[in-house]
Specification:
Blueprint: H1 2-15, E1 29-34, E2 38-40, E3 45-51, E4 59-70, E5 81-92, H2 102-110, E6 126-128, E7 131-139, E8 154-158, E9 165-175, H3 182-186, E10 193-195, E11 216-218, E12 233-244, E13 251-252, E14 254-259, E15 271-274, E16 289-297, E17 302-311, E18 315-321, E19 327-330, E20 333-335, E21 348-351, E22 366-367, E23 372-380, E24 386-399
Parallel strand pairs: 8-13
Antiparallel strand pairs: 1-12, 2-12, 3-9, 4-8, 4-12, 5-7, 5-9, 6-7, 10-11, 14-24, 15-24, 16-23, 17-22, 17-24, 18-19, 18-23, 20-21
The structure holds 2-acetamido-2-deoxy-beta-D-glucopyranose (NAG) (3 copies).
Length: about 425
């Protein structure tokens, strides 16, 4: 009931504007932003949070792309700086409160628990009283060839009447120039890293995010002259934001993340290790493929408008099936074959997305609340073992009866608490 009531409030807010012709092609605006400069030296790890610019007011995001660039605008190849991930979050600012900036922002975000943003809906991430995630999305090295378009008439709604929000960007980059073991650095193999605050490294943890925190360093080759001042560079995350006006034509989508390491009702670890080792020529042998699978009941029901996986190097495939066995989405990685930015050999440079509810048979993409979804991820053991790999599926669902995510848990005025 609370949900329906809040939808009425939301709709009244939307319809209060000028009415639009919903059959007309949507009018998109695009703005490009540059993040704060990030200083890098060979071996450096940066994993900080920035208060960043966004389009003004209330709007619906329909596309968002990003890449790392040098100060002169040249793209940074993944072989120079591996982009482990970037995340954009929109947080509510409590009544009478201010934006979080500087050290306060770092501490609030770090304290909020690693991977919290991957957890499927339901319980929003809260970094402090009154500061809850309202919108957000994330990608990794695949960002350059990943299609992030949310097709019409859908959009990811931001802002809202009487609501103050702040956009926060997190960039996790690992400078692997001169690295002793470049892929080992990208996998955050603990034995290769030093420094940073590694107080959270769990026991028997061979590699992953806890071993490559902000200000840690990955081991360099002994013959590499890391002191060469010309190797010190400044990079930025350049992001391009496409959005539309928020009117009654926009159907809001709800984010839901599926983590292959999660089980129904049990939070996953997001990262996992692919044990074993195979030689390249044994690539096709079944024992050289690591298969993970999980069944998760969908928190939401409605049209699955968009889905895309997040996978690391050595990933082979990812697939989502419905409870009746129908294939909902196949989201495989794309690998580079050369040296240029966007085509780095051995790196995941893109991941194929799906629009299950928009296909020739849209019923494939209709998901029931509580439907048991089966998600499978495959990695190769070639060159293994591999540490800190991920198998996540980010989905956007047009929920029957409206969305939960874009309404704050605790708002100002007469807004209602949802849940
Ligand atoms: C991205 O996917 C959409 C379908 O959702 C398609 O219409 C569009 O052409 C694609 N963009 C590119 C650049 O391939
Ligand atoms: C390291 O992080 C822990 C939390 O994981 C924190 O309690 C501790 O104060 C930090 N240490 C330093 C030196 O920042
Ligand atoms: C659409 O897909 C559903 C589920 O797979 C199937 O039951 C139905 O027969 C399909 N319809 C058509 C027209 O192909």
């Amino acid at each position: 009931m609370a949900l329906r009531w809040a939808m009425v409030v939301l709709l009244v807010g939307l319809v209060a504007g000028v009415s639009a012709d919903c059959d007309a092609k949507r009018v998109e605006k695009t703005e490009t932003f540059l993040s704060t400069g990030i200083k890098i030296r060979p071996g450096d790890v940066n994993n900080k949070f920035y208060d960043v610019g966004s389009p003004a007011g209330s709007f619906a995001t329909v596309d968002f792309n990003a890449e790392l660039v040098y100060e002169n605008g040249d793209p940074v190849p993944l072989t120079d700086v591996y982009l482990h991930h970037w995340i954009m979050f929109e947080f509510t600012i409590p009544t009478g409160g201010a934006k979080l900036v500087g050290q306060e922002l770092q501490e609030a975000m770090r304290g909020s628990g690693a991977h919290a943003y991957h957890v499927a809906g339901g319980k929003p991430l809260r970094v402090a009283a009154g500061r809850e995630v309202r919108q957000g999305w994330a990608k990794g090295g695949e960002t350059r060839h990943l299609n992030s378009t949310i097709p019409a008439p859908y959009g990811m709604v931001s802002g809202g009447e009487g609501l103050r929000t702040q956009w926060v960007l997190n960039v996790h980059g690992i400078d692997t120039r001169g690295a002793k073991n470049r892929m080992g650095c990208t996998e955050c193999r603990c034995d290769l890293f030093s420094g940073g605050n590694r107080s959270r490294v769990p026991d028997n943890y061979p590699g992953g995010l806890f071993c490559c925190p902000d200000e840690s360093r990955c081991a360099l080759r002994e013959d590499f002259n890391a002191d060469d001042a010309s190797l010190e560079r400044t990079i930025h995350l350049k992001y391009t934001w496409t959005y539309i006006a928020l009117d009654e034509c926009v159907i809001p989508v709800q984010g839901m993340g599926l983590d292959v390491t999660a089980k129904n009702g049990v939070k996953g670890t997001v990262e996992y290790n692919v044990e074993g080792h195979c030689k390249a020529e044994d690539f096709h042998k079944p024992e050289c493929v690591d298969v993970r699978e999980t069944v998760i009941e969908s928190l939401y029901g409605g049209d699955l408008v968009y889905a895309v996986a997040h996978l690391h190097a050595y990933a082979l495939d990812s697939t989502l099936w419905g409870e009746d066995g129908r294939l909902i989405c196949h989201s495989p990685p794309m690998y580079g074959h050369g040296t240029a930015a966007g085509d780095e050999k051995g790196y995941v440079v893109g991941i194929r997305h799906c629009n299950p509810s928009l296909g020739a048979n849209g019923s494939v993409g209709k998901i029931k609340k509580g439907e048991k979804l089966r998600f499978q991820v495959k990695y190769t053991r070639v060159d293994g073992p591999h540490t800190g790999v991920m198998g996540v599926l980010f989905t956007k669902i047009a929920q029957e009866g409206g969305i939960v995510q874009s309404v704050p848990l605790r708002g100002s005025g007469n807004r209602k608490i949802l849940n």
